[in-house]
């Protein structure tokens, strides 16, 4: 599934897109994420008038690089997370490697505005919000990275890419996609049922942790759900607080979401896809990882000794380096 893409050229953010919403913004998260050196927080105004938080980190100028990368990475988080989950480690890593990076907070998450509904959106509306950001701010096809349910959103985005001109206007072309510990195309129901039959205790823990949001109050359950056992408790506590503040409303109505699945198939997928999993993932099992990889006709890569939150875990650089190697291969 290769695609021949000419070298890309980027432009900077269009000032008018953000100028109307930059001023007067107040923190929605009572436990704010402090930006790192080289990062900025801007707000992308959607057609609805609501604004999405975007954490930006531009590539660092390399004095001794003969070839300069002209690629943009757009990061999409999953449930109970926001743009900050990428900004902690991966935005500095990839910007230092020569990429302009944009991490989005979906509506109702992080510092983004909340819609009037009881949930943040649907698979379709979240994908359209990502597409709107790309169409108005990124000049050349970017590489998108989606984690967990964010990966499912990216899968829906990909399913809408095609030769139809209307779709092309709504969903700009992508250079590539990285699905990180992604929920498979059929959704999370298969994961739950497999746990029920193979490991009832794990099924109970996952349901209690995520559906009942017990991870927000139990430090040990938060660690077991998202991180490696070696992560220090004070770091888990910090992420636990950020997760709680990030998810002021559910990302989806899961019943309606599962009723809309599986994601439509993508014959002759028009972009390169990397399917990346974690060996110690407590949420997405090996069969779920294989389902996603088979859907795109690629071989999955499973990173050893990391958990579901690969970008925040103690060995976060392992997954980042696999992705960087894959990105470098796109340039060859």
Automatic annotation (TrEMBL):
Q: Name one GO molecular function term.
A: lysophosphatidic acid acyltransferase activity
Recorded protein name is AB hydrolase-1 domain-containing protein
The residues covered by the AB hydrolase-1 domain are 73-313
GO biological process terms, alphabetically, are:
lipid homeostasis; phosphatidic acid biosynthetic process
Q: InterPro entries, alphabetically?
A: AB_hydrolase_1, AB_hydrolase_fold
Looking at the record's lineage, which domain of life comes first?
Eukaryota
